[in-house]
């Protein structure tokens, strides 16, 4: 959504990718199973391999990182809190072929296989 700005453009982009079998990434915050399902189900219909990344983050650390953002990049705190409240941790049985667990430390991202973390 950062790149495409509207759901209509996103839908057109995804439709074109699916029809041409072009690989693509959905880089959205999809905190609920239902929000993830609309992408997973559609991609499965077109025989795509579904790879997910869960970025583990506490509410406090999310608010701290967000406070350093400026202008349009900063999300109102109520948005961060609302998303955190409805978060449903993903599961392989949602249709993922592979799922990764991502954490952040002082040096950057640490990516681990889901099976070893959850």
The spatial strand order of the largest sheet comes to 1-2-3
Label the structural class.
alpha+beta
Strand content: 15-25%
- In CATH, the homologous superfamily goes by the name P-loop containing nucleotide triphosphate hydrolases
pLDDT below 50 for ≥5 consecutive residues: which ranges? none
User: Care to count the β-strands?
Assistant: 3
Q: How many separate helices?
A: 4
Shape: globular
CATH architecture grouping: 3-Layer(aba) Sandwich
Average pLDDT across residues?
92
Brief rundown of the structure:
With 118 residues, this protein is an alpha+beta fold. 39% of the residues lie in helices and 16% in strands.
Protein described:
This protein has 118 residues and is an alpha+beta fold. The protein has one domain: P-loop containing nucleotide triphosphate hydrolases (Rossmann fold, 3-Layer(aba) Sandwich). The protein is 39% helix and 16% strand. It is built from four helices and three strands; from the N terminus they run H-H-E-H-H-E-E. It has a three-stranded mixed sheet, with no helix packed on it. Helix 3 packs antiparallel against helix 4. The radius of gyration is 16 Å and the shape is globular. The mean pLDDT is 92.
Task: Tell me the layout of helices and strands.
Elements: H1 7-20, H2 33-45, E1 51-55, H3 59-67, H4 77-86, E2 98-105, E3 108-113
Name the descriptors.
118 residues; alpha+beta; Rossmann fold; 4 helices
């Amino acid at each position: 959504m950062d790149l495409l700005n509207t759901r209509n453009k996103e839908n057109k982009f995804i439709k074109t990718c699916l029809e041409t079998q072009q690989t693509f990434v959905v880089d959205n915050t999809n905190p609920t199973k239902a929000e993830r399902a609309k992408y997973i189900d559609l991609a499965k219909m077109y025989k795509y391999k579904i790879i997910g990344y869960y970025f583990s983050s506490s509410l406090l650390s999310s608010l701290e990182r967000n406070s350093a953002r400026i202008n349009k990049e900063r999300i109102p705190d109520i948005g961060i809190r609302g998303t955190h409240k409805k978060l449903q941790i993903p599961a392989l049985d949602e249709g993922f072929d592979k799922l990764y667990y991502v954490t952040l430390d002082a040096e950057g991202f640490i990516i681990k296989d889901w099976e070893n973390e959850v």
